[in-house]
Amino acid sequence: MAYYLRVANQAQVLGFLAGALTTVAFVPQVLRTWRNKSAGDLSMGMLVTFTTGVALWLLYGIALNSMPMMLSNGITLVLALILVGLKYRHR
Question: What is the DSSP annotation of 34-83?
Answer without folding.
Answer: HHHT--TTS-HHHHHHHHHHHHHHHHHHHHHT-HHHHHHHHHHHHHHHHH
